[in-house]
Design a protein that fits this description.
Rossmann fold, 10 helices, globular, alpha/beta, single chain
Length: about 220
């Protein structure tokens, strides 16, 4: 069962998402919060698999809430998905930097919304290739990451990171590298550990900012 926490200052938005999620047999909404501070507190108390957090809220906003969750080792299993009205903007990029696994525009169709929750729950990043290109084109024009840890990566780990940055899943990476899916996952996880990142979304950002992957 995928346990979900909803964090949004608009009750109507929360109720709409909850109604959709409650129809699914494998998803359970464990709590709702109206601001980031309450959301972080509930995340610590309930340890949901996925926290859907609005990016713009009064008080503690989604970026700060994401940062607090990502910084807490006890919440390593909580995957944050940012909710936004505006698509790819500077707030979303800041949230990805803070540790979000990805983002959703609030007018997403129900099928894509449910798919995104399941993708986030299994630890994959919500960054399709088209989204990655837009992110890079708009925000990663100059290298910002020092590349610390890149020298520790093996050639296979570097290749896996490159494919993650292209938006490929572990199964797709395995097929491209002619290895098993568990081995692909191991390469990705080891790269994340060496680069000291929380999830695949941050791995994508570092891959481009460090110059390991070139802007398309």
């Amino acid at each position: 069962m995928i346990r979900v926490l909803l964090v949004d200052d608009q009750a109507l938005i929360r109720s709409g998402f909850r109604a959709l999620l409650d129809l699914e047999d494998d998803i359970e909404v464990v709590a709702e919060a109206a601001d980031g501070e309450e959301g972080v507190a509930l995340a610590r108390q309930l340890l949901p698999d996925v926290a859907l957090i609005d990016v713009q809220m009064p008080g503690v906003d989604g970026i700060e809430a994401t940062r607090r969750i990502a910084a807490d080792p006890a919440l390593a299993g909580v995957h944050v998905v940012i909710l936004t009205n505006y698509g790819m903007d500077e707030y979303v990029f800041d949230a990805l930097r803070a540790g979000a696994a990805g983002f959703l525009v609030k007018d997403v169709v129900p099928e894509d919304f449910l798919h995104a929750v399941r993708v986030a729950a299994r630890g994959d990043a919500l960054l399709a290739p088209s989204i990655t290109r837009r992110l890079i084109d708009r925000y990663v024009t100059q290298p910002r990451h020092t590349g610390a840890g890149l020298a520790e990566l093996t050639n296979r780990e570097r290749e896996a990171v490159t494919l993650v940055a292209q938006g490929l899943s572990n199964d797709q990476i395995a097929a491209r590298m002619a290895i098993s899916a568990p081995t692909a996952k191991t390469h990705v996880n080891r790269a994340m550990a060496k680069l000291r990142v929380r999830d695949r979304a941050q791995l994508v950002v570092i891959a481009y900012e460090s110059g390991l992957v070139s802007v398309p």
